[in-house]
Amino acid sequence: MKQVYLDNAATTPMSPTVIDVITDEMANDFGNASSTHTLGRKARNSVETARHTIAQAINAKDQEIIFTSGGSESNNTVIFGVAEMQKAVGRHLITTKIEHESVLKSMQHLEELGYEVTYLDVDRDGHISLDQLREAIRPDTILVSVMAVNNEVGSINPLKDIGQIVKDSQAFFHVDAVQGLGNIDLDVEEMGIDFMSTSAHKINGPKFLGFLYERDGIRLPNRIYGGDQELKRRAGTENVPGIAGFGQAVAEVQAESKADLQAKYTDFQKIILSRLDESGVAYEVNSPLTGLVSHHVLNLRLNGLSTYVLLANLDLAGFAVSGGSACTAGSLTPSHVLTAMFGQDSPKVSESIRISFGRYNTVEEVEAFAAALVKVARKLQDRKRED
């Protein structure tokens, strides 16, 4: 039985071209990028070519891109780095209640160290209030960390507006763009972003690789000490094949129209919702369908049905979706995103699934999934009514 993969917000299948680039680098370009001989220079060229491609994609300078192990490392580097660097200026940070765990847990640890964190509320569409942000910024605020696109409901934050607000303060502006890169246009200059975090595996690239954008003129304290790699900002021998593959992945997603991708994902959403409407299945849509939203994520409540029962039945039917963030999906902890949006007593917190599309999904796959979802939901809801 072929497994249909609709969990692209968790990770994405690697692009065949990216695999080719990585394979070629592994076979033919094994030099250390810090070595001065021919093989080392060849490896260095691969790294710098990828760095340039990535910098161009977000309107940054090459020297502002630092390769890391992924979004979690990049987020930690910024949050703890700013806290250390700016502790004489202030000890107040601002984030939102629906950030990724790598942001939230970093902030919670800073609170244990005596820092103060304001967690902004979100509305029922997963958006913050700009007025609340303005009111939250204080003279001792040193960092505002807001994600570009939420990984559970797809809500997009108005980054340009947030950047303008933060610009009028002494704080730095950090964006977790792990779900944004490849799905929306990102411009660090236009949006006034000081730091940006990403992960390669969210855009059909390799796992355990990402980049941190650090605005020129800012120098965070190093978190990893050793050699002088990554412009002396992140020690450790560069993963040349992975970096080359990351550059290829970025080049591929940049070549695609974001508007066309969003239109494709919107059509996928319509197929699923139409089939549910036609079937009489009781459901609710948790993610926004219009406005500031990336349509690669569709979050649904199937009324009365446990998330875990739904996931198990869909998995047995050959369809991979999730109950929310892959970082917490293995636990029984309710979604902190849906809790922030709808309240901890809402049944949506424990009766919802996340369907997330990618560049390689097809209409046929989505049609098949919609039929399976209807079949599973009707069977389980009918059984529940009988009980």
Automatic annotation (TrEMBL):
GO terms for molecular function: calcium ion binding; cysteine desulfurase activity; iron-sulfur cluster binding; lyase activity. Keywords: Iron, Iron-sulfur, Lyase, Metal-binding, Pyridoxal phosphate, Transferase. InterPro entries: Aminotrans_V_dom (IPR000192), Cysteine_dSase (IPR016454), EF_hand_dom (IPR002048), PyrdxlP-dep_Trfase (IPR015424), PyrdxlP-dep_Trfase_major (IPR015421), PyrdxlP-dep_Trfase_small (IPR015422). Belongs to the class-V pyridoxal-phosphate-dependent aminotransferase family. NifS/IscS subfamily. Pfam families: Aminotran_5. Its EC number is 4.4.1.-. This is Putative cysteine sulfinate desulfinase/cysteine desulfurase. It is an enzyme of class 4 (lyase).
